[in-house]
Amino acid sequence: MNILSLDNVVKRYHNHTAVNHVSFDIPKGTVFGFLGPNGAGKSSLIRIITSITAADEGRILLDDEPISEMTSSQMGYMPEERGLYKKMKVGEQLLYLAQLKGMSKADAKASIKKWFVKFGIEDWWSKKVDELSKGMQQKIQFIATVVHNPKLLILDEPFSGLDPINTNLIKDEIAELNRQGTSIIFSTHRMEQVEKVCDRIVLINQGEVILEGDVDEVKQDYKDNIFKIEFDGNMPADLQSPHFTIISDDDTSVTIQATEGHNGNELLQNLINKGIEIKSYQEVLPTLNEIFIKKVGESNE
Amino acid sequence: MNKIWLIIKREYSTRVKNKTFLLTTFLAPIGIMIFIAALTFVMSRGSDDQKNIVVIDESDLLNGEVKATNNITFSFTKDDLNQSLENYKEGTNDGVLVIAPLNDPTASKYVVNFHSDEQLALDESTRLERSISKKVRNFKLKELEISEELLSNLDTDISIAPKTVKSDKKVSSITSAVGGILGGIVGYAMFFIILIYGMQVMRSVMEEKISRIVEVVISSVKPFQLMMGKVIGVGLVGLTQITIWLLLSIALFTIGSTFFGLDASMATPSLDPELQAQAEAVLSSDSGKEKIAQVMGELSQLNWWKIIPLTLFYFFAGYFAYASLFAAVGSAVGEDINEANSLTMPIMLPLVFAVYIGVSAIQAPNSSVAVWGSMIPLLSSIVMPTRLPMDPPMWQIAVSMLSLIAFVIFFTWLAARIYRVGILMYGKKASFKELAKWIFYKG
Question: Which end of chain A lies in a sparser environment, N or C, as judged by fewer CB atoms within 10 Å?
Answer without folding.
Answer: C
